[in-house]
Amino acid sequence: xxxxxxxxxxxxxxxxxxxxxxxxxxxxxxxxxxxxxxxxxxxxxxxxxxxxxxxxxxxxxxxxxxxxxxxxxxxxxxxxxxxxxxxxxxxxxxxxxxxxxxxxxxxxxxxxxxxxxxxxxxxxxxxxxxxxxxxxxxxxxxxxxxxxxxxxxxxxxxxxxxxxxxxxxxxxxxxxxxxxxxxxxxxxxxxxxxxxxxxxxxxxxxxxxxxxxxxxxxxxxxxxxxxxxxxxxxxxxxxxxxxxxxxxxxxxxxxxxxxxxxxxxxxxxxxxxxxxxxxx
Length: 280
Ligand SMILES: C[S@@+](CC[C@H](N)C(=O)[O-])C[C@H]1O[C@@H](n2cnc3c(N)ncnc32)[C@H](O)[C@@H]1O
Description:
Layout: H1 19-24, E1 29-31, H2 50-60, E2 66-69, H3 76-83, E3 87-92, H4 95-108, E4 116-120, H5 123-126, E5 133-138, H6 145-148, H7 186-203, E6 204-214, E7 217-219, E8 222-224, H8 226-237, E9 239-248, E10 269-277
Parallel strand pairs: 1-9, 2-3, 2-5, 3-4, 5-6
Antiparallel strand pairs: 6-10, 7-8, 9-10
Helix pairs in contact: 2-3, 7-8
This protein binds S-adenosylmethionine.
S-adenosylmethionine (SAM) is lined by residues 41, 44, 46-48, 71, 73-74, 76, 91-94, 97, 122-124, 139-141, 173-174, 178-181.
């Protein structure tokens, strides 16, 4: 009988997956998945979920490789990397989020400078001095939407059986002018993001991958295809676009924004936009 078990291919320089596992992760969508260790991350307004990032790291790296997140926030990328035996380096402007991340790392027994590095500072500058990395996964601030859309903090109504309660106010990342979330116009936001990702590109080993997690959003009340802007700026830097995965978030509340006059979309997914560095 033919052996139908999937096997690890010794020619595989990308990851440690068998053929079957690799194939599963080539799907253009997956459902976002929570786990118990995510809870502590919600002191940050927009954290990744660990399982989602583990999927991406397992696809794009091998054990022992180094993952970079230039907008590290609550530290989820470092935790996902650690869970899979990868190393990580993260940068964030906010000492509050660095502290939050470190309290999560301590609980996991993660060791600084062995398992992870978390540098407090502006990615634009810090990236110039780091060592090369094997994979980048990150999510920038979504321009100024935390300030504009009042999507920030909500009262915890979980005891009443609701997902979240009435608005308490808006939490945004910082007042720092170097913060990508504080750029005056959408054009300035894109330009600063391009400069940061150019510095990240220079630190990514050749033939390795970079994933940007971002959704479309509105700028001055108009829907913007942010995905196309990101692909444009990343390809200008030199990255090759290799496809978008849709991260489905089917548990968000629906808002009747335009009802009953006009269609206005409820964003229920993030785009994970994937790129590769291929130097001739
Ligand atoms: C969308 S959040 C990232 C959340 C993160 N993925 C997590 O799992 O918590 C964006 C982060 O970028 C940080 N940030 C904004 N501008 C920055 C800059 N110029 N350099 C470094 N970090 C910056 C913010 O403080 C914020 O924590």
